[in-house]
Each structure stands twice: as structure tokens, then as C-alpha cells.
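Hi R.,

As promised, here are both runs. First protein below:
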Amino acid sequence: MVLCRDAGVLGRDLSEAVEGLLSQRIAGLRRYQVRNRYQIPPLRSSQLTDLRRWLSDLRDLFSAAGLPLLHPQRRMNRRTRRRACREQRGANGHPKVQASGSPETAAARDRSVAGTVRAVRTGYRTDVPAGCGTSGNARVYDLSDRELVARAVVEGDWVVIEAGALARRSEVRWNQTCLTAKRRRLVTEGLLRPLRRRPHLLKLRAPIAVSSLMNAARLLRGDNAHDRVWQRVR
């Protein structure tokens, strides 16, 4: 998460541009695997100048935090490569088991703020539990943006978009590839269908569970929206 103290400077276009440029640079250096690819929206020359300056500052910040995200990977000679292989192996010559790859650690890493494992990590689910959102602990959110109208329910580890939600049929050119694929899959499976009188809108025919409110907003709007577009009503 990157925050800016100057109000009104890091707007929506620049925020998406920072995401896009970081993902492109990190993926290009091949130090880490980037799961989602972002595209950079059209910017003015002054915005491009700010973007380059911020990228330089972020590189120093990442380095100070011990994350060489924007530094090229150092090439290892044969001797250094053999030493690295020995360090990765145990005393008996077998590869060490990485703690971060254990099921317990993976589950803990995927825990939400409430301390429960999320029902959906990626994609979506249609097997929403009956009565989800009816308890007193459920939180209800509404999204209303011009023609878009939707309701989402958060209860425990479930984030559910209720049936009848409206979504944009089109999406921004720099939309995340995973979200674009998810929207197309929903259309193919008949869960999102165009309205007859308003074909530029899609209607959700059944409730679906997603990973977060932010993911729900981006899925319906077809852009890189924040979860702040949702308004809590209960």
C-alpha cells in the first residue's frame, strides 16, 4: 500500500499508473512473479514527470525496507550458485521445507482482519450458504453509481454480491486481466446477462461470493475502483 500525504496529488489516474508501472518494472526484472498486470492510463506530461520521480523514491523506500523490488537481480557465478544450493539443502542433502509453503502458514497468511479464513481467495463461488446476511452480525453495503445499483453482504468470512446487482458491460482499457477474465466467465456461465432495454448494463442473476468488497466493486464497475465506493447501510 502506497500513501501520499499531499491532498489531491495522487488521484485515480496516477494511482493506477503507479500500480501499472510498478507491476511492469518488477515483472521485467524477473525477481518476483507478478500475478496481475496493470496497464498505464493516458497521462499528461506533468503527471509523467511526477510518476518517474515517485518511482525513484519508491525504489529507495523498498531498498530501505529490505525489498529489492526495483533492482536487477545479481548474476551468480558458478561458485556462488553452488553455495546458494548448499544453503537451500539440509544436512542430509534433501531440500529444506519452506515454512511459508506449509498449509498452516498459507491459511494464516490468508486470514482476514476478523481472524477468519476467507471463504473465497480468488475467483468467485456460487454455493453461498442459505441465510447468509440475515444474522445480526452481518454488514450490508450499497453501491450506487449513476445506473449501477448493487448490494453486498459481509458476514464472517463471506463477501456476497446479491442477485439483481447491475454491472457495466464495458470496462476500462487498463483493467486487470484477471478481472476481465472473471467478468467474461460470469457472462459465459449466464450469471451476468445484458438488460434488454439497457444492453450496456449486465444484471447478476444469482448471488456470488467474492474475495473482498474491493474485488466486488471492480468486478461490477469494470475498473480499478476502491472499496470506498460501497456505503454501509446496516
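And here is the second one, sequence first, then its C-alpha cells:
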Amino acid sequence: MATSSKSFVLFIALVLSTINMTFGARHLLQTTMPSIPSLPTIPTLPIPVTIPSMPSLPTIPTISIPTLLPQPTLPTLPTTTLPPLPSMPTVPTALPPVPGVPTSLPTIPSIPFLTPPPATSP
């Protein structure tokens, strides 16, 4: 435990001293204004007087297409008759009557109270 706390304190001291050194270095750098070099001049390129023309494209030879053989015709499919679809069942629109809820509670039979047997005295 003591070793880790000592290393932590050393780490914090190192960080704080590094911060102070960076502020000092920045202050030294900002005391004098650097001289900015001038930009070099860019030479201008000569502009050609005439632009060379594009070469002409070669001509594509024409190919004679041979006549195709007649295509065979597809055979006719037999016609089928489907059976008629069953009719949809009808949905009832009225709900059945709800059975009546009894208004009186049934009587609960009473259980006779049984007494424990008398204790025997020692």
C-alpha cells in the first residue's frame, strides 16, 4: 500500500513539473516573432497555339447475321376445371344470454366447537 501511494505522489510531481516546463518553453518561444519566408514565384506555362486534333475512330466492320431456324411451338396445356369453393360460414351477430348471477350467498354449515380433553394432574 505504501509503495503504490509513493509512486502515485511521484507521478503527480512529475506531471506538475512537466506542465511548468511546457509553460516556460512556450513563453520562451513567444518572446521573439519568427520571420516568415516569402513565397516563391510560380512560373507561368506557355499556352500552345493549336490543339492537336483527335485521331479518327476506326470503322466497325458489319457482320452478316445468318437466318435463324424456326423455333418450335409450345404444346397447348389441357384445361382443367376446379371444383367450386365452399361457402363461408356465417358469423352470429347476437351474443347468447349471460346466465344470471345469484344474489344470495349459500349458507356455510357451522362446525361444532370441540374442546380438548381435560388435563390430568400429576
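A quick note on the second one: The chain has a mean pLDDT of 79. Let me know what you think.

Best,
J.
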